[in-house]
């Protein structure tokens, strides 16, 4: 192929000329509304139980290089309800600190095994109740429908059917956000209910905009267990994030090194649990001591400073880096009609008759 490609200003591949607001999933990857791939490197914050720490926690999380914060909310079933005004403030504080917010209802934890847990349907009702503060924020937030919404011993069809119903209800209510679905088995999916049935849930979404989240604790105590799980999602072209993990859990070890390394290799996101405030019975899973940003725990130091940790792999969402939606104006035409073997970086593809046209997507501002 004899073709001189002009200098490309944008470094990312755009899979569509048409752009739209909000995060979207395509080919197993998560993209911002401007077409840039986004890989979560984040930290969980237990807001529902420690709401007075919001400002300092978000500032501290951002200062460690995180691009994402996953926020514990409550629909009022088990803990004090997180009101719509509070959620609006959380979203604004995330924006102020240049963080993408993953919002989750924690009351559903362990439903089907824990009798005090809320149903997934009750979490859906909460999202619909507060939808006025969510709609219009699609570029900045992801809705994690319910935290670990099924415990052990729950039939796989219940996990499948209730998530299908939840997704349709949210779409019918006008929520077009990227949605995050948690695994069964308290998020750890040791029965592979989510792994083996994720495609059925994904295909039920008319927007095809679902991210799957596994919580990697003691079930994932070696390289092979982590690799096998991530490989399955990669082979099936489905988007995966490790929504929670730590170096230990209760008295058990977790292979956090493999989790971070393989997430980097596969291009999957991860979100460490959690900033501070954990009960000591769960082990040493605080990231900082006593909410002090200057006092990293051993786990926190690993999460932040490892070769595949947050400080070395996190990239700021481009919506915060001065970028705007691309203007696909200039063209490069494959005049000898042999077609490029791959779409050039920074170009989107448009095929007409026997000629392939690549439109350069220029940004009004450059990115880091």
Structure description:
By secondary structure, the protein is α/β, with parallel strands linked by helices. The chain folds into two domains: 1-19 and 326-368, no CATH class; 28-320, Alpha-Beta Barrel (TIM Barrel). Helix content is 27%, strand content 20%. It has ten helices and 15 strands. The strands form four sheets. The chain has an eight-stranded parallel barrel, surrounded by six helices. It has a three-stranded antiparallel sheet with strand order 13-15-14, with no helix packed on it. A hairpin with a 2-residue loop joins strand 10 and strand 11. Helix 3 (120-129) runs parallel beside helix 5, helix 5 packs parallel to helix 6 (193-203) and helix 7 (223-235) runs parallel beside helix 8. The longest helix has 17 residues, at 156-172. Mean pLDDT is 87; it is low at 1-19 and 324-368.
Helix content class = 25-40%
CATH superfamily of the largest domain: Glycosidases
User: Structural class, from secondary structure content?
Assistant: alpha/beta
Cα radius of gyration in angstroms: 21 Å
Could you please say which CATH topology of the largest domain applies here?
A: TIM Barrel
The neighbouring-strand order within the major sheet is 3-4-5-6-7-8-9-12
Q: What is the CATH architecture term of the largest domain?
A: Alpha-Beta Barrel
The total count of strands amounts to 15
Into how many domains do the coordinates divide? 2
**Poorly predicted sequence stretches spanning 5 or more consecutive residues:** 1-19, 324-368
**Overall pLDDT, averaged?**
87
- According to CATH, what is the class of the largest domain? Alpha Beta
Question: What is the helix tally?
Answer: 10
First-residue to last-residue Cα separation:
32 Å
Q: How is the main sheet built? A: 8 strands, parallel, barrel
N-to-C order of helices and strands: EEEHEHEHHEHEHEHEEEHEHHEEE
Shape: globular
Strand content: 15-25%
């Amino acid at each position: 192929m004899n073709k001189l490609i002009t200098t490309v200003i944008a470094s990312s591949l755009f899979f569509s000329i048409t752009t739209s607001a909000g995060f979207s999933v395509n080919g197993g990857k998560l993209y911002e509304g401007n077409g840039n791939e986004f890989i979560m490197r984040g930290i969980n914050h237990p807001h529902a139980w420690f709401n007075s720490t919001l400002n300092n926690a978000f500032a501290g999380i951002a200062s460690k290089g995180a691009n994402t914060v996953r926020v514990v909310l409550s629909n009022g079933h088990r803990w004090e309800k997180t009101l719509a005004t509070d959620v609006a403030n959380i979203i604004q504080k995330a924006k102020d600190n240049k963080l993408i917010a993953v919002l989750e209802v924690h009351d559903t934890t362990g439903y089907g095994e824990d009798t005090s847990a809320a149903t997934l349907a009750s979490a859906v009702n909460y999202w619909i109740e507060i939808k006025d503060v969510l709609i219009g924020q699609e570029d900045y937030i992801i809705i994690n429908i319910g935290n670990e919404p099924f415990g052990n011993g729950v039939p796989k069809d219940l996990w499948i059917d209730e998530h299908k119903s939840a997704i349709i209800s949210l779409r019918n209510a006008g929520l077009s956000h990227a949605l995050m679905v948690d695994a069964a088995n308290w998020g750890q999916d040791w029965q592979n209910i989510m792994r083996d049935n994720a495609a059925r849930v994904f295909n039920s979404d008319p927007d095809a905009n679902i991210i799957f989240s596994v919580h990697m604790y003691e079930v994932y105590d070696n390289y092979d267990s982590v690799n096998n799980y991530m490989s399955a999602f990669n082979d099936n072209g489905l988007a995966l994030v490790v929504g929670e993990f730590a170096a230990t859990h209760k008295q058990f070890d977790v292979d956090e090194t493999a989790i971070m390394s393989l997430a980097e290799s596969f291009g999957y996101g991860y979100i460490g649990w959690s900033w501070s405030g954990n009960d000591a019975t769960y082990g040493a899973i605080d990231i900082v001591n006593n909410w002090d940003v200057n006092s990293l725990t051993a786990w926190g130091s690993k999460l932040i400073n490892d070769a595949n940790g947050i400080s070395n792999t996190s990239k700021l969402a481009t919506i915060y880096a001065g970028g705007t939606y691309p203007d696909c104006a200039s063209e490069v035409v494959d005049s000898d009609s042999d077609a490029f073997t791959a779409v050039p970086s920074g170009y989107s593809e448009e095929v007409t008759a026997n000629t392939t046209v690549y439109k350069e997507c220029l940004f009004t501002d450059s990115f880091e």
